[in-house]
Specification:
Order of helices and strands: EHEEEHEHEHEHHEHHEEHEHEHE
CATH architecture of the largest domain: 3-Layer(aba) Sandwich
Largest sheet: 6 strands, mixed
Strand order of the largest sheet: 10-9-8-13-11-12
Distance between the termini: 29 Å
Number of strands: 13
CATH class of the largest domain: Alpha Beta
Low-confidence stretches: 174-184
Oligomer: single chain
Helix content: 40-55%
Mean pLDDT: 91
Number of domains: 2
């Protein structure tokens, strides 16, 4: 087994099979809360989250992994002489990367390295897969980190939401933007720029928003993969998959798992597209 260990937060939605295949892969849990009740992300589905939120009439909240969660995994590995690469969800959605960096300062900054993925879900999965493959090949940590940062730079994330309420109540956009969008029934196409949530474009219907999102995708010619996921919108995801296949018949299309933390931020009806340009 490689002396390099990879730690990823649960918003990536890594599969059980990945953990079974890679003993040097670890996960720290983000959490979801409604009122006084709190769950580790993987213990509550989006459907259950929204059902409970509706019943309680309270908006779901999220929290990043506690410092102790990172310490519990990372301290024994560092004491055993291992190196650690943490791959965290976009800093625009969570303070996970910042929290991990604080732990690295406490434990060992020279052997615990933190990468803000500037994306989420399948984008993080692909980064983790790349890191594991490079570690297994015997590549040095510094080289792996350099290549992962190039992958981060080449990865793009587009998001279409049904309502701005979740982004607003979660503190990801301002009240004026949310009010404007609600009054004028704006469908914003959102993207992550340097890991921050920003509006790419504003259109009036969901159909036009999907077209705008696909038009943005068409700007890129050579892609490694395209990941597509949804929150409570499976039929719309299927439709987008078919349209993407027509545009990129030779590019792998992957399903992007969307956990309850992203669900709490983006709300039901959300469609996400994550893709990576080929690195030359």
């Amino acid at each position: 087994m490689s002396h390099i260990h990879i730690v990823v937060d649960t918003s990536a939605q890594l599969t059980k099979e990945m953990f079974e295949k890679h003993p040097n892969l670890h996960s720290v849990s983000m959490k979801v809360r409604i009122g006084e009740e709190e769950w580790p992300e993987d213990e509550i589905s989006n459907a259950e989250l929204f059902r409970r939120s509706k019943e309680c009439k309270q908006h779901p909240q999220t929290s990043q992994p506690a410092p102790g969660d990172f310490i519990e995994i990372c301290k024994p590995l560092l004491e055993a002489g291992k190196e650690i690469i943490v791959i965290a969800v976009s800093g625009g959605l969570s303070g996970t990367a910042q929290g991990a960096r604080s732990v690295a300062k406490m434990l060992d900054e020279k052997r615990m390295h933190v990468i803000d993925s500037s994306t989420a879900s399948i984008g993080m999965v692909q980064l983790a897969k790349g890191a594991l493959a490079m570690a297994d090949s015997g590549m040095e940590t510094s080289v792996i980190i350099s290549k992962l940062l190039a992958m981060v730079e080449a990865t793009h994330t587009l998001i279409l939401v049904d309502t701005l309420d979740y982004l607003y109540k979660g503190g990801r956009i301002g009240g004026a933007a949310a009010l404007f969008g609600t009054i004028f029934q704006i469908r914003p196409v959102i993207h992550l720029i340097d890991g921050k949530v920003a509006v790419l474009d504003k259109v009036r219907t969901k159909q036009r928003a999907v077209t705008r999102m696909l038009d943005e995708l068409k700007r890129y010619n050579e892609l490694e993969y395209i990941g597509i996921g949804n929150v409570d919108a499976p039929l719309e995801e299927e439709m987008i998959v078919e349209r993407v296949k027509e545009i990129y018949p030779d590019v792998p299309i992957l399903h992007a798992g969307i956990g309850s933390v992203l669900g709490a931020h983006l709300g039901p009806g959300m469609i996400g597209v994550v893709f990576q340009e080929k690195i030359k």
